[in-house]
Amino acid sequence: MNLELYQFSSTTVLLLLTAFYGGTYLITTFIKKEQEDTDAFMVSNQSVGFGIGAASMTATWIWAASFYAAATSGYTYGVSGPLHYGLWGALMILFIYPFGRRFRALAPKAHTLGEIIHARHGSSSQLILALSNLLGSLISLMVNFTAAGALVSVLSPLSFQTGVIIAGAGVLSYTLWSGFRASVLTDFAQLIALMAIAVVIIPAVLFAMGGPTEMLNGFDKLTLQQADLFSTDAILHQGAPYFVAVLAYAIGNQTIAQRLFAVNEKHIKPTFITATLGYGAIVIGLGMIGLMALTTGVEPLNGDMNNLIPQMVSSYLPPVFIGLFFILVIGSLSSTADSDLSALSAIMMADVYGKNIAKGKACPKRMLFIGRLTMVAATMVGIIFASFSFDILVMLVFVGALWGAIVFPVIASCFWNRVTNRAFTSSVVAGLLMFCIARFELVPMTGPIAVLFELLASIGGGVVIGLMVFGFLGTRAGFVAGIIAGVALMFFATGFLREYTVLLSSLVAYGVSTLVCVAVSLLDSEQFDFNLIKKRVGHYDQGLDAAYTAQIAKES
Prior knowledge:
Keywords: Cell membrane, Ion transport, Membrane, Sodium, Sodium transport, Symport, Transmembrane, Transmembrane helix, Transport. The protein is an all-alpha fold.
């Protein structure tokens, strides 16, 4: 079945965009200060409450790709597709919580995870982490601007470039002055709108196409794997790679870390649990639209899976609902784009300028200037690259590998006093190198070579499971779970895992970086005093340290 896309007039779309971005900018005027301070610009002075924090985390993690990828999962893998995408994505939020408590305990006044690594190891390790976050946030920014351009071009006569420019200018307009404070405030409003619209649109599409009965009748169109809730195709091609990515994104993504450092410490647990549940519910619901399309025999327009949700909404619903859907997607991509701008500015302010250029003697006014300049420059770069519609898949692969390779070194550096700067840098480089060999099959994955990589991947799988269990249940449970998982994978995965390149290469990055990090650390007898981190990481604005100390004393 072919469904055509409904189109608004250019004037209608421009009015919708003006209303959204104008309203968002108006909200930020209520918190605008004549003299913004540096720490508020980066992390709201570590005073974000539970409700705002949970809403901001949820809205940030629901980006444009969540809509299209969730629907694609439902359309491709059937019943289990939306569950795999939404569940593992939600766990990315949850699994930073146990490690986040340690990060906050080590450095209560931190703005970025890179500051902790700088205090622990120095510049080289910190800049590796900062570089991965800069690349990740820039790519995310481009993806969201690209999604805005595509949405505008398919739902109106306006060009792709027009949509990209309007989205870029709109997000920058309300984020530029107040930075992170503006991002978290608008996230709250955007999430309320997003939830309200999603709750209306998803059931509306279902009943417009004939209701649950019609959907169930279409299950005969599904293959056996698509109809299976425990589909091995879905698990091996999507579920397992996403599960492996959980820790990589949780530890490596500055947009999450920034909210970790911004939320009031006593609210960290409920904030992350609530965001986990909120994200999972909304994204699984959006993925069901892809399953609806599959059961009704809808074919994506021009063979592009990204057209599935616009097709379903515009073909089954009246213009008012299509307008709500338009705002829904614009709101989701904007909430993530403003978080990317805030993350990029914090990295340049704290990691690059504060710790490396100013050497700990940073000028707050200059930091604010650098932060705002970073936002302007990042927006321009995002617009330019999005306008050319570059293929960013290769860049995403490298960023994902870099995040996977840094997970164990970062966590170990915060719990084990034997990890050295040399161990950190060499393990990340080795993990990334071996990932590239496996991911792009630079050597034939056959015979002893394939077995070697499968064994390294099995160790990586044990590391993933071990770290997750360690985060919630402690060291002994983590070791036991990791060893059992690693041995089990060695037995079952040898001769099998080589057929699943994405999963194999991701696990290899974990396994190699862990082995190298542990081996190099054990060769050195140096033992680090973790109390030094708290002394080396502080606020940048004069007088804020005294106010922070008074606040903590009052809460105690």
